[in-house]
Description:
The protein is about 25% helix and about 30% strand. The chain is an alpha+beta fold. Coenzyme A binds near residues 104, 109, 114 and 141.
Amino acid sequence: MGEGSVGNDRTGHAMTSRFLLDDLRSQRMYATTVADRIWREWWGPHGATLADVEAALDECLDVNDLPVTLVAHESGRFLGTVTCVASDLAERSQYSPWIAALWVEPEERGQGLGAALLGKAEARLRDLGVGTMFLCAKSTLRRYYAALGWELLEQGVGPHLLDVWRRLATPAGA
Ligand SMILES: CC(C)(COP(=O)(O)OP(=O)(O)OC[C@H]1O[C@@H](n2cnc3c(N)ncnc32)[C@H](O)[C@@H]1OP(=O)(O)O)[C@@H](O)C(=O)NCCC(=O)NCCS
């Protein structure tokens, strides 16, 4: 089980709130909520059903490495999620693996949870021996991923004109 702290608030003051970052396999009670958020934000607008997402998520619960879904939670409360997958963007099938579906509950945003989830996903991939990882995002998130140390590889990819980002895994403790 991984523990996290949201660190500093916007004024730089230390915050006491703590949360846990775990593999969904060990926190299956959050699976329905994770599926709901992925469906509403990404899959539903493209015509998929909630059952489609639930089936895909079941795959994350059944395998040992990828795909893997992580959840942030605190005292039984779901806070956010992220998933590592082998492929995420049909137009760039040569790249793998990807960090996808990064989501923080709206009322929990702006406290570093997104960065913590992303960092945990990066660490998980690094532990799997991954050297280079990718993610795709709308251009509105350009400042966000750049600030978190990702390298902008391409812009305007695919029908949704996504940015493609790359990150080289750094050795643990580096
Ligand atoms: C993007 C998201 C995961 C960030 O989560 P978070 O916990 O608020 O992120 P953090 O607290 O680590 O970082 C907050 C910073 O990111 C910035 N940020 C967050 N969302 C942003 C956006 N859509 N565009 C630009 N900047 C954004 C905030 O302004 C804040 O900047 P500041 O620290 O300078 O004030 C969250 O807003 C979210 O779930 N959005 C909806 C789903 C989504 O777009 N996911 C990304 C898919 S690629």
